């Protein structure tokens, strides 16, 4: 039976031995250091106690020297660690479990990590394209706030008011990477915390004029095949999707992810449950069986115009498909949001009556229309935001003329003669 291996830094002593000729006591011992090697040690003294104390002191000094050597090696390693190397470790640590896609139903597995794959992909892309080319070779230990400030703000074009989202994402990602460095003991502070705020160019939400809304509906209904261009002929799908966007204010990924299972009929009323969204990333396209946020999961009543369109679509498309999509392709799969945007651009020419036409504009138009009649909180619930402030800032167009409140100011006027 093999002998038990000696524990690291545990001193084993032999009994003290006295040299009868000189009267000197000697104590021998052995131990294993951090490398696992066995070390022999001995010390002498005028008495057995003095020799024992000398041996213990030598053993303790050996421990201290080994610790100092390890700290020096660690310090040298940390000083040589670059931001690029640290970022790769952080990305690997944050990477969520891969999404398993059912190719028949085009649905992805439910996320088991708080970070979604599309978010992680955005982080990786921002690091690879913007942060690391500028800072990747800098040592983590020597990274300064001024380095972070310059890199982040260089991504924002103040004159043109462009690049805000890229710069804001870079600041967010770099903040998390350096927080990771602090937790791993590579730094005692996070230099990104003192980076100044990125000025955001104010972009007013757009509400389409009534004439533009009518023109959009007419354009998507009247779309014809382009001369000399092959491919499938236009169908009513484009106009029906636009109608649903205008009737609900949903995100385009949520609309194209609607299945017949999400449509509910109660008497003469029809309701739509927002239960998922489409994820379109490089190398992956699938239906995520939950919407963008928890507040996005909701049930909305549909307008009579859309109810008519839904009944018509159901009568025309009685063929069951594995995806059960309300707006399927010819093959029964979900329509990619990017393809829908291309179709919408072709139908409207990108602009119509001087206004840019996008799915996001439809969403802000719906939000503004509801807010004007029912208030910000009603618009928030319709659009599925977590707070009315998000709805107000990004999706509701402020009126140019303030409503007349002058009747409440009569008592502030000077008394009449």
TrEMBL record:
What keywords does the record list, in alphabetical order?
Answer: DNA recombination, DNA-binding
What positions does the domain Tyr recombinase occupy? 203-409
The GO terms this record gives for MF are: DNA binding
**The keyword Isomerase belongs to this UniProt entry's keyword annotation:** no
Where would I find the Core-binding (CB) domain in this sequence?
81-182
What the entry lists under Pfam families is as follows: Phage_int_M, Phage_integrase
**SUPFAM superfamilies (alphabetical):** DNA breaking-rejoining enzymes
Classification via CDD domains = INT_ICEBs1_C_like (cd01189)
GO-annotated biological processes: DNA integration; DNA recombination
From which domain of life does this come? Bacteria
The record's section on InterPro entries has: CB, DNA_brk_join_enz, Integrase-like_cat_sf, Integrase_catalytic, Integrase_recombinase_N, Phage_int_M, Tyrosine_recombinase_XerCD
User: Which PANTHER family does the protein's record reference?
Assistant: INTEGRASE_RECOMBINASE PROTEIN MJ0367-RELATED, PHAGE INTEGRASE-RELATED
Family statement drawn from the similarity comment of this UniProt entry: Belongs to the 'phage' integrase family.
Name this protein carries in UniProt:
Site-specific integrase
The top of its lineage is: Bacteria, Bacillati, Actinomycetota, Actinomycetes, Micrococcales
């Amino acid at each position: 039976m093999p002998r038990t291996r000696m524990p690291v830094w545990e001193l084993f002593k032999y009994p003290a031995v006295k040299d009868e000729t000189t009267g000197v006591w000697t104590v021998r011992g052995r131990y294993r250091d951090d490398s696992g090697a066995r070390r022999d040690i001995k010390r002498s003294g005028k008495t057995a106690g003095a020799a024992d104390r000398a041996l213990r002191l030598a053993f303790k000094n050996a421990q201290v020297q080994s610790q100092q050597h390890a700290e020096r090696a660690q310090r040298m390693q940390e000083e040589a660690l670059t931001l690029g190397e640290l970022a790769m470790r952080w990305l690997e640590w944050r990477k969520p479990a891969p999404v398993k896609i059912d190719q028949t139903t085009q649905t992805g597995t439910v996320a088991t990590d708080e970070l979604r794959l599309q978010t992680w992909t955005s982080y990786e892309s921002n690091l690879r394209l913007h942060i690391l080319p500028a800072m990747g070779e800098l040592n983590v230990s020597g990274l300064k706030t001024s380095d972070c400030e310059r890199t982040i703000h260089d991504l924002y074009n103040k004159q043109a008011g462009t690049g805000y989202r890229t710069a804001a994402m870079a600041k967010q990602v770099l903040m998390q990477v350096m927080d990771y460095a602090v937790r791993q003991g590579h730094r005692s502070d996070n230099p990104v915390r003192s980076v100044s705020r990125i000025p955001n160019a104010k972009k007013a939400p757009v509400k389409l004029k009534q004439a533009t809304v009518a023109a959009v509906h007419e354009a998507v209904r009247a779309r014809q095949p382009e001369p000399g261009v092959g491919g499938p002929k236009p169908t009513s799908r484009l106009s029906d999707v636009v109608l649903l966007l205008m009737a609900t204010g949903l995100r385009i990924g949520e609309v194209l992810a609607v299945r017949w299972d999400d449509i509910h009929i109660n008497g003469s009323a029809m309701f739509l449950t927002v239960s998922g969204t489409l994820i379109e990333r490089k190398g992956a396209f699938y239906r995520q069986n939950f919407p963008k946020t928890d507040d996005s999961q909701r049930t909305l009543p549909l307008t009579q115009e859309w109810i008519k369109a839904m009944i018509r679509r159901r009568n025309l498309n009685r063929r069951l498909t594995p995806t059960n999509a309300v707006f399927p392709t010819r093959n029964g799969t979900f329509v990619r949001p990017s393809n829908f945007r291309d179709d919408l651009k072709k139908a409207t020419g990108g602009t119509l009556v001087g206004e840019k036409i996008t799915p996001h504009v439809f969403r802000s138009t719906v939000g503004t229309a509801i807010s004007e009649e029912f208030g910000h909180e009603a618009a928030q619930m319709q659009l599925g935001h977590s707070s009315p402030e998000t709805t107000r800032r990004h999706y509701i167009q402020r009126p140019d003329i303030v409503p007349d409140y002058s009747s409440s100011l009569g008592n502030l006027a000077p008394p009449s003669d």
